[in-house]
Amino acid sequence: MKLLRFILQRRWLLVLVALGILGGVSYYPLKHVVRPRVKAWRSAKLNESARDFLRQEDWLNALLMTRKNLQGAADNVEAWRIAALAAKKLNRPEAIFYQDSLCRLSPSKENQMEYIRLAILFKQDGMAVQGIKKAGGSAANDPDFHEMAAQVYSRLERRTESKYHLLSLLELRPTDKKAELDLAAIEIAEDTERKNLALRGRIRSLADNPESRLRALSMLLADSVRGEVIVETAELANRLRLVPNLPIHERLLLVHASHLATPAKLAEDLAALQRETATKASEVSSVMRLMSTIGMNEDVPKWYRTLTDEVRASEIVKLSVAEAIFALKRWSELRSLVTEGSWTNLEYVRRAFLAYTYKVDGSVSAFDEAWKGAVLDAGDNVRETLDLYTRVERWGWQRERFDVLWRLFSMMPENKDIRQMLLLWERQQGNTANLNRLFARIVDMDPNDRVAKNNFAYTSLLLDANVSRAGLIAKEVVEAEPENPYYKTTLALSLYKQGKEVEALTILDSLRTSALATPERTALRALFLAGNGKHEEASAALEKIVARGLLPEEKRLSNTALSEIAKNQRSKDNVQRLRSIQDTGTAGFNRAGFLVLLPATLSANPSVEMQLADSLFAAKDLKALSDILREGQWRERDFIRLALLSYTQRRDQAGAARDSWQHALSIAPRNAIALQSLCDLASKWSWTTERIEALNVLHAFAPGDSARLNELMAFYRQAKRTPELVRVLRPWIENSRNSPESVAYAYYALLSNVDLSQATVMAKNAFDADPRNAERRFVYAFSLWRQQRFPEADAVLKETQPALLSLLQSSLIRALVALDNGNLPEAQQQVSGFDEAPALPEELELVRKVTAKVAELKS
């Protein structure tokens, strides 16, 4: 029995071993052979089903089938091709995304050409330019490529590139009359002095060809009207009238020609054109613009009142009428026109006109609201923002002009003209913070721009922001150019900020006399001299300063030197006053003084001036305290003196109190104890704004304190100031890129439409680190939406479970993604559940746009 049991046990053991071997052997072909074949078979079947839908012209189901296929086979070339075709047939801009993915997998000339066609079709000129650059090598001998490239660059008003592609097109297709005319149009526009007679002769020869006659005559007539050549205008107008079925552009041109060459026929020609166009809003708008051009603004609103309600409701017609009324300066009539509902695609112009009427009336708050609305409505649309800039420049609005310039800079930071205008403006305004912001963005774009790096470091040091980084940059640029006076000045200021007054003075004194003569270097040198105890030399240097061109922070540094010199002269008098107070017993009040509020490192071994101020503070003698504070300087503890001075000025000198507090912040030592003492004083005195300012400086210097970060975030979230939330989070994530706060930074940056590249990467990294976290999934979906990767965003959201979120409202993200994926009911349902009360301004703006778009599509 034992033997039999042993044999049976061995037999079962052998069976199990055999099954294990068979299982291991079968797993390898299952994973590496069978599964890929099944996957390929399934993908092919889905492709075939999608093609069947294409043959039936069922574009939507073809797209849905392809999306399903791509979820499991992102490298399926045929699926991307079908998706691009179906989306194109459905007139959806996402076709560009599908074609781009196809080009990445199969970068053939045909695929790249189709990408350019789609970008042109959906008016995405920036994407079209990218496609042109990629396809340039393989498509250089393709006339269709040059034709599309010329079209794109012409639309972007980039004449040089457009001419190049037109010339290349004519080499490949010499008989292309349209290309000849396109090239002639560019050349005649450039010849403003009408010197190129050969060009005009060439265009006249084209006018002899029936196929190109209309455009050639139109081009010549427009040129003669611009040049006010009366005889030629009359001759060309007579030739153009003989062409049958003239389009609206040419009919407008003939009326303009009548105004110049045959004024007696103007009324008749204009009346006939008005009758012919009265039912078409776009043509009515064109006629109105012409009337304004030829000085008939008075007649525009009169004609407007005779039109049908449908035409009068058109926003482009209203815009033309508004332009005419604006030229007539009839402000009440203009306000009546622009307050009649929204203008949908031209809402930014309507609000700008409304703002103008409020400015004329002196209604400051109404103007501010309307103007902010105009800027927000222009949004991140470059064309609309440029139009808004042109208007405010024409209107002579300086501050608002630069509001728009900053918006343009955020969209086109590489534009040197915009940079230079902003630099000059902010320098003139003495806005060091905005200068610092400008240089920071330039450095982000081009880390090798040494001048921008030095300017960023210098302004950071003046603002006491990013001081450590500024010091490293100052050292780096001086090592690259040891004799550059600007770089050495920044390094000297950096050393001073580190408490190295001797080294700072040594570096500045190594400059040539001519370099030292500038006001800012004279101010810095006086400061360094005073810091080294050379008060007489410092005083002599300060007498030479012309403070007019100094930045506010440079003036404060100069004032610091003055205070140090004055303090040196007052020491004996203060000792005597302190003794007098102590003799009267008033010094016993010091238990109620300010020294007890300071940490031991700041209150220990107080100077005579500090003790005197403490006694006066305890006695609540604010007048005497203010006098002693204005007269003295407390060296490394001078920021406490300025904080106390702000305290004495608070009641009846609000502006001076703010300046004193800001000065205290600017000169406070860059250490946690000093900055925290200012926070504590502000808390003790119930100064919320000042505490937040001090916390900001402390956070910039030492961003590693989570409690401080949370307090700042809570304050700015409640105040609904999204740019400040981004700014507060930026130094934190620089030190801890994978922290939970990077999710918040990514969301706020995406919401503000700034630092998009960094925010996109952070959103993806956060999602990859914890894909089950609902908040991270929503932020990642939002990032995909910003990149116009709508189907991918939709896929992420579909797998996201409901959860309580503190950072964002899920309904907004779902509404945005649903809208751009064509799911209008879902978008409307989600946006209806959005809670506006806690929302940030940018969130409200997105909700408004979703609501407007849903309403537009439904109608």
Short description:
The protein is mainly alpha-helical and 859 residues long. Helices cover 76% and strands 0% of the residues.
Number of E-type strands: 0
- Overall geometry: globular
The biggest beta sheet is recorded as: none
| Structural class category | mainly alpha
Number of discrete helical segments: 49
Helical content class = over 70%
Mean pLDDT: 85
Strand content: under 5%
What does the radius of gyration come to? 36 Å
pLDDT < 50 runs, ≥5 residues: 585-589
Distance between the termini: 90 Å
Give the oligomeric state: single chain
Task: Walk me through the structure.
This protein is mainly α. 76% of the residues lie in helices and 0% in strands. It has 49 helices and no strands. Helix 25 packs antiparallel against helix 26 (450-463). It is globular. Mean pLDDT is 85; it is low at 585-589.
Topology, pairings included?
Elements: H1 2-55, H2 59-72, H3 77-89, H4 94-105, H5 109-121, H6 125-135, H7 143-155, H8 159-172, H9 177-190, H10 197-207, H11 213-227, H12 230-241, H13 248-261, H14 266-277, H15 281-293, H16 299-306, H17 309-312, H18 315-328, H19 331-338, H20 347-361, H21 364-378, H22 382-395, H23 398-411, H24 416-429, H25 432-445, H26 450-463, H27 467-480, H28 485-497, H29 501-509, H30 513-516, H31 519-531, H32 535-542, H33 552-583, H34 600-603, H35 608-618, H36 622-631, H37 638-649, H38 654-667, H39 672-684, H40 688-701, H41 706-719, H42 722-735, H43 741-752, H44 756-769, H45 774-786, H46 790-798, H47 810-820, H48 824-832, H49 841-858
Helix pairs in contact: 1-2, 1-3, 2-3, 3-4, 4-5, 5-6, 5-7, 6-7, 7-8, 8-9, 9-10, 9-11, 10-11, 11-12, 11-13, 12-13, 13-14, 13-15, 15-18, 18-19, 19-20, 20-21, 22-23, 23-24, 24-25, 25-26, 26-27, 26-28, 27-28, 28-29, 29-31, 31-32, 31-33, 32-33, 33-35, 35-36, 36-37, 37-38, 39-40, 40-41, ...
